[in-house]
Design brief:
The complex is a heterodimer of chains A (about 120) and B (about 775). With about 120 residues, chain A is an all-alpha fold. Helices cover about 65% and strands about 0% of the residues of chain A. Chain A has a single domain, classed as Helix Hairpins (Orthogonal Bundle). Chain A is built from four helices and no strands. The radius of gyration of chain A is 20 Å and the shape is elongated. Chain B has about 775 residues and is mainly α. Chain B is about 75% helix and about 0% strand. Classes of the chains: A mainly alpha (about 120), B mainly alpha (about 775). The interface between A and B is large, with 94 and 104 residues. Chain A: It is found in: Cell membrane. Chain A: This is Multicomponent Na+:H+ antiporter subunit C. Chain A: It holds the Pfam family Oxidored_q2.
Chain lengths: ~120, ~775
């Protein structure tokens, strides 16, 4: 399953890169979303997958009785999900604001708006 | 010794403050510093002459074998005496020369920094320390040449000198590192004892080339000689001190110092004799072409440096003796002559020799100093210049096979030097008075106070050259030529040396008599060569470099975000891909079971991602992204990450809502890129995605190292008192990180709010270009 998910992550990355290379700024934002999802999944998958063993300690015990999924990458990914949401919402609002002001979503035209 | 050397930097820091307190007289007070060092050095004289080297160690970066160890042996003492002695005199002179100049404090600081760096250079025993001081002299020289920075010529000359000397400095750095590797030591004192090992080492040609390039650029040897005459735009004290007496001798010092380690091989001898020979002939001929006093002196300095290089190349004991005597003589007379040039400049407002005459009445003291120094330059008795010249002749007459070649170059060149000396000492001061731009008037006495001692030293050392015997002997043993002390004397009796001197004198006299006609010939005859000389190569090289820089800036930094991204991505793909293939090989395919349901979820993710890229409707794109997010959440559920699944679901919902709200106020998707561009981007994207997959497979393939999370799993409950281990990590083990995350979110929220609500600015924003 890890190998399959590795391929999927590769596809997600490819899609993200393709969108990041577009001229339309809205597509750039979509590329950003794809990229953050792909990165989260990458960290999650490469740490190793385990079915049906969430990192929880049962009542009355000091440690899980059997091996559980690695909690550290999960904690990292959790942080990353939330941060990427923050970045995304900022980016989306920024793009909207830019559109309102300069009325173009072509990155090549945005070049000239400072002059 | 460290305090004595490095204290100069402190003194230079005090200089501006001192200048504010007492104005131009601060230079006199500051000259006490070199005077103090001079006194200390003279105190060490007897010990050093007896053959002891004074070593003062200070570990600077012991882990890297870099120490700030200073070593005072004969050679170092000789140079150090010249540096602080002449430095002090020139400092006194500069106080008068630049009196009232608004930038005098800056000059004092730079001058003292240079002097200190130069002192450190000749005393340093560690190669790294030597290089640091070497570069420091180059930098301060740059700032001093460009002292009159409002003059474009000064800036250009400063830049040229900097580019050439630091370019050579880079070669020197490579050479020194190779030297340290080949000789297995960073200490000069150790390296000079390993000459045989070094000369037999396979790296010898490379390290020799690097070191000689550094020395040649610094000491203005052909084909790098042109920066030195151009550097004459600097104030005259700088020309006198840096560009004749000290800085340009740094290369000579380095070659002399490394002579026992590197010298004696065919490559060494051939290079030094040839380069020195060409340089000295070129300097002598070019000197006679000038009418500007400083330029004439600068070219004759080039000639003198060529002589020293040549003598180092010949490398016998007598040749080294001659080199050192000539070095001392040159420092005395050339320093004095430059200072005279400066006095003439401030008194008459011109440096053109043909525009001066009969100044001996107005400036009698200056005329006397000029005459004394010129006697030494011409190599006439009873000056040190004569002693040095006789020594050079005696050396070359006895050394085969290079002596003959060298003599063929040197005798005419020496003749031309006689002519230069006569021109410098006679033309401005004798003959009928010529109207100068300013009526000549006598200048502050500090000017003469700086110049006179140097000329006097030329004379005194010539009358009793035996004073130098002990020091020369110590210096010679420091550079690998021990033996009994040389016996310098003014009068060596009749013989070939005297005959050669007389021949040179005759030639010089003829050249002086017919200088005006000779100059005309040289002007016309040499013009095509000068127009094709190394200076033009240098300029062309600089111009081409600029063109290249412009071209690559236009190409790499074109202002398009996507081309920056493409360049970064392609570099990443190339570098990481290469590293992966070379160090790991292509990763294998781990076999593991896939359940049908999981496969479907994974497939949904991929399809959704691709759909999001392909659709032209914004709603469809948002929907595709949403399904991808939910598929990811499902994956989290399947593989034991309930917290992630919850968060992902929540965030995904919010994202879809946000996009649905905002995206529809945005324009429709338009297809802006061309067909070719899309395929090119698709290629980059495919490579990037493939590389990520390969990297992940390589990671999954590799062995697992012991993990910190095992500790977290076992201690989460006992120490963190929580049963959800992910939560324990977030709020306990990595609490500070989570706090930072909260701040980031708060900032993002503030930004979003600001952009959505605050519209005060909008009215002032001009409507965009169409």
């Amino acid at each position: 399953m890890e190998a399959l998910l590795a391929v999927i992550v590769g596809i997600l990355f490819a899609a993200a890169v393709y969108m990041l290379l577009r001229r339309s700024i809205v597509k750039l934002v979509i590329g950003l979303m794809l990229l953050s999802n792909a990165a989260n999944l990458l960290v999650f998958v490469t740490a190793g997958l385990r079915r049906g063993a969430p990192p929880l300690v049962p009542e009355g015990l000091a440690a899980p009785p059997s091996a559980v999924a690695d909690p550290l990458p999960q904690a990292l990914v959790l942080t990353a999900i939330v941060i990427s949401f923050g970045v995304l919402s900022f980016a989306v609002v920024l793009v909207r604001r830019a559109w309102e002001l300069v009325r173009t979503d072509d990155l090549d035209r945005l070049q000239d708006t400072d002059r | 010794m460290q305090a004595l050397v490095l204290g100069g930097f402190v003194v230079s820091g005090v200089a501006p403050w001192l200048h504010r307190l007492m104005g131009g007289r601060a230079a006199l007070l500051l000259a006490l510093w070199p005077a103090a060092i001079l006194a200390w050095l003279l105190g060490q004289w007897s010990g050093v002459v007896a053959g002891e080297a004074l070593v003062s160690e200070w570990a600077w970066m012991p882990a890297l074998d870099v120490s700030l160890t200073f070593r005072l042996d004969g050679l170092a003492l000789l140079f150090a005496l010249l540096i602080v002695g002449i430095g002090g005199l020139v400092l006194v002179y500069a106080g008068g020369y630049l009196r009232g100049h608004s930038q005098l404090p800056r000059f004092l600081v730079l001058f003292l920094v240079f002097m200190t760096a130069m002192l450190g250079l000749v005393l340093a025993d560690n190669l790294v320390a030597l290089f640091v001081f070497w570069e420091l002299t180059g930098l301060s020289s740059y700032l001093l040449i460009g002292f009159r920075h409002t003059d474009p010529l000064a800036r250009q000359a400063a830049r040229q000198a900097l580019l050439i000397t630091t370019g050579g400095g880079l070669a020197l750095l490579v050479g020194l590192i190779l030297l340290a590797q080949a000789g297995d030591s960073w200490s000069l004192a150790t390296l000079v004892t390993r000459g045989d090992t070094l000369r037999a080492h396979p790296l010898y040609p490379c390290l020799l080339a690097g070191i000689l390039l550094g020395a040649f650029t610094k000491s203005a040897q052909f084909p790098f000689q042109f920066w030195l005459p151009n550097a004459m735009v600097a104030p005259t004290p700088v020309s006198a001190y840096l560009h004749s007496a000290t800085l340009v001798k740094a290369g000579i010092y380095l070659m002399a110092r490394l002579h026992p380690a590197l010298g004696g091989s065919v490559a060494w001898t051939l290079t030094l004799v040839l380069v020195g020979g060409v340089t000295l002939v070129l300097g002598a001929v070019m000197a006679l072409r000038q009418t500007n006093l400083k330029l004439m002196l600068a070219h004759s300095t080039v000639m003198a440096l060529g002589v020293m290089t040549l003598l180092l190349g010949v490398g016998t004991r007598t040749a080294l003796t001659a080199c050192l005597v000539f070095l001392v003589a040159h420092a005395f007379y050339k320093g004095a002559l430059f200072l005279v040039a400066g006095i003439l400049d401030v008194s008459t407002g011109t440096l053109d020799i043909t525009a001066m005459g009969g100044l001996r009445h107005a400036l009698p003291g200056t005329a006397l100093v000029a005459a004394l120094a010129a006697l030494s330059l011409a190599g006439l008795p009873p000056t040190l210049g004569f002693v040095a010249k006789e020594q050079v002749w005696a050396t070359l007459l006895t050394s085969d096979p290079w002596g003959g070649v060298a003599l063929a170059a040197l005798v005419p060149a020496a003749g031309l030097m006689v002519a230069v000396a006569a021109i410098v000492a006679v033309r401005p001061f004798f003959g009928p008075p010529v109207a100068t731009p300013r009526a000549p008037r006598s200048r502050p006495s500090s000017l003469l106070l700086g110049a006179a001692p140097l000329a006097t030293l030329s004379l005194l050392a010539g009358l009793g050259p035996g004073v130098l015997d002990g020091l020369l002997s110590a210096a010679l043993s420091a550079i690998g030529a021990p033996g009994e002390a040389p016996h310098l004397a003014l009068w060596h009796g009749f013989g070939w040396p005297l005959a050669l001197s007389l021949g040179g004198l005759l030639l010089g006299w003829l050249a002086f008599r017919h200088w005006d006609r000779l100059r005309g010939w040289l002007e016309v005859g040499l013009a095509p060569w000068v127009a094709r000389g190394p200076e033009v190569w240098h300029a062309a090289l600089g111009w081409r470099t600029l063109q290249l820089a412009e071209w690559q800036t236009r190409w790499l930094q074109n202002g398009h975000l996507r081309s920056y991204l493409a360049i970064i991505l392609m570099s990443w793909i190339g570098l990481v891909g290469q590293a992966l293939v070379v160090h790991h090989g292509l990763p294998g395919w781990p076999s593991s079971g896939i359940q049908a349901f999981e496969g479907m979820v994974a497939g949904l993710m991929a399809v959704a991602a691709v759909t999001a890229c392909l659709v032209r409707s914004r709603l469809a794109a948002v929907a595709a992204l949403g399904s991808m997010g939910f598929a990811i959440a499902l994956t989290f559920v399947l593989f034991s990450a309930p917290d992630l699944a919850i968060t992902q679901l929540l965030v995904e919902t919010l994202t879809v809502v946000l996009l649905a709200l905002v995206l529809f106020r945005l324009p429709h998707f338009t297809r802006l890129s061309s067909f070719r561009q899309r395929w090119r981007d698709l290629g980059i994207a495919g490579l990037a995605g493939g590389l990520v997959t390969a990297l992940m497979l390589a990671v999954l393939d590799g062995e697992r190292l012991p993990r910190i999370s095992d500790w977290m799993v076992s201690q989460g409950q006992p120490l963190g008192h929580g049963r959800n281990l992910v939560n324990v990590i977030l709020v306990d083990i990595r609490a500070l990180d989570t706090l930072g995350e909260v701040f980031v979110l708060a900032l993002a929220a503030t930004g979003v709010y600001a952009m959505l609500c605050l519209r005060a600015e909008e009215s002032s924003w001009s409507s965009p270009a169409p």
